[in-house]
Amino acid sequence: MAARLCKGWFNKADVAIIEPSDKHYYQPLWTLVGGGVARREETQRDEASVIPRNATWIRSAVDEFHPEENLVITQDGQKISYDFLVVAAGIQVNWDGIKGLKNAIGTHEVCSNYAFRYVNYTWETIRSFQGGTALFTHPTGAIKCGGAPQKICYLAEDHFRRRGVRDRCKVTFAIAKPKIFDVDKYAKTLEKIVARKQIDVLFNHDLVEIRAEEKLAVFRQLDTNNEVTVEYDMIHVTPPMSAPAFIAKSPLADAAGWVDVDKHTLRHSRFENIFALGDCSNLPTSKTGAAIRKQAPVVARNVKAAIRGQLPPAKYDGYTSCPLVTGYGKLVLAEFDYDKHPSETFPFDQSKERWSMYLLKRYGLPLMYWYGMLKGRL
Question: Which backbone phi and psi does 99 adopt, to 5 degrees?
């Protein structure tokens, strides 16, 4: 967003980024790191290297919003005023949202691709697996990259087959939803894939506890509210997620804690000089980098119009994308809008597994991110 706002006539105005991190991560590649086909190091860069040249970097974290005063207060006590505010704070990963997970993660064959520090352990666990039950989970509620929990399941199954241990493995995918994917066109393909790979799917199963010493996973069945216990030999956990706590407690939040914006203009529903995009917003679409790529130009255009005193001219249609890795060298590129209608980029049926789309995921999309999106070009 800052890169877009710094372009053209706007580069003479003050554009500031409040960001505490010293490292910046391309998180979508963590699935392939966990699957053993990418290195963790290539997903990380210094934060300073991606800050736009004309933007001011305030290296702190926001703690409070005071929209009536056009003011934010940082954790170190700075009071920073603004004329227009764009909130793009991502999503909060709640490692303590599952009993026993926080102490078990990264040990006892409990792994997850949802953190830089743990992702290498996923590959270590998969490649050393000799047989038994390999369990993969997908929690209730919003998560970043809704397809990621099943992507690593498919890669692990493929790896077990290549190593010749598949006949000694039971692969289980436990998902808190009643279906494998929200868009029917792609769900039909994924249903065929899990059948072909002989993956057991447990629908409406939400992980609530891990007993790592016993290698037991406790699920709540959402359709019956019963608890069931599943034995495992390895488990990949997608932790529950939520709006960042500092946003959830703020005047910007809706009842669920997300920044409350108009789903088309991305302008705040109550404060006209505030916009939001990405995972921290309450936009009713999947939380993906592809969605942000389409949201950013809308917000940039609407912020510039607001500065001129004009109404927001740009509209976002809910576009999002989920590159569903279904094995080594195979990918289904799901693209859809608010209405769950396919909104595909390429002139062929994207619900089919393709090598070309896998190459796009592995090599094309990281380049688009580092040299396109972060530079305000895409």
Answer: -60, 130
**Which residue type occupies 86?**
V
In single-letter form, the type of residue at position 30 comes to W
Tokens of 194: 């899990």
Sign of CA dihedral 87, 90, 93, 97: positive
Last residue of a domain, one of 241, 273, 297: 241
Instruction: State both tokens at 361.
Output: 């995921």
Q: For residue 297, how many other CB atoms are within 10 A of its CB? A: 15
* Distance in angstroms (rounded) separating the CA atoms of residues 297 and 266: 11
- Beta strand 169-175 with 241-242 is unpaired
Specify the amino acid at residue 4.
R
pTM of the complete model: 0.96
Can you give the C-alpha Rg of the chain in angstroms? 21
Q: Is residue 367 part of a domain?
A: no
Please tell me whether residues 164 and 198 are part of one structural domain.
yes
**For 120-150, how does the pLDDT look when each residue is reduced to its tens digit (9 = 90+)?**
999 999 999 999 999 999 999 999 999 999 9
- Please give the mean pLDDT across all residues of the chain: 97
pLDDT (tens digit per residue) in 345-364:
999 999 999 999 999 999 99
- The one catalytic residue in 6, 111, 145, 280 is 145
At residue 199, what is the residue type? I
- Whether residue 112 is found in the same domain as residue 199: yes
- 145 among known catalytic residues: yes
Residue where a domain stops, chosen among 280, 295, 317: 317
Domain co-membership, 100 together with 199: yes
Identify the active-site residue in 153, 169, 280, 322. Answer: 322
Q: Nearest CA to 137 among 117, 156, 161, 164? A: 156
The number of distinct structural domains making up the chain is 2
Q: Which of 198, 183, 203, 116 is nearest to 322 (CA)?
A: 183
Q: What is the mean pLDDT of residues 75-86?
A: 97
Give CA 270 to chain center in angstroms.
27
Domain with 111, as residue range(s), is: 93-241
Look up the CATH number of the domain holding residue 121.
Answer: 3.50.50.60
